[in-house]
Amino acid sequence: MAYKEWDDVFPSILSLVSRGGFHVASVSAMVAASSVSKMTLYKYFGSRDALFAALLEWHSARWREWFFSEVEERAKRPAHQLEAFFEVLEAWLVSGDFSGCVFSHALADFPEPAHPVRQAAAQHKEAVRQYLRSLAKKSGAAKPGQLAQRLELLMEGAVALASDANRAQVAKQVALLAHLAIQDALPSGAFLRTAADTVPPRPKTRRRTKRAGKA
Fold it and tell me: What is the pTM of this model?
């Protein structure tokens, strides 16, 4: 579901969850943060857990739209997009919007495999995994699944290790490791650039995040 009508409500609930975690985000706290009545929340979602699952589905769609479009604006060829993926990751980690990964928090807070919140978080992770696998396959990697798994591990590690003190350092080290992994997995010549591969520089405008930073 798109939950488009909740675009003005979910950001405040997302901020609440990102700051304190799922288990401390009571319905009363969400009502106070969003200015939506408890009756309205229960009418639309039925339960607190169903609301959390909907929140993650909504946020995943917005975050992926922003992140993947940024990758594809930076490079045209799949091999270059794999590296651009980590350029966008670095930009996100060092931005003021970054406050950890709410999907990873959901996986930790809801360990039961069948729990709807865990399933929503797992679906997001799978979508990112499949995006990396698609780029790896299009790039000519002999084992696209293996390359995607390695790159996913690097991404997850960067997000987990990033802190206010070392975000930039972590991002740069992970980008270097990703480059080595990509270079090792792709056929020779995959990184050769032509004039057609050059993406014209974008005008200097405020970075579009669509409030997507709290992934």
Answer: 0.85
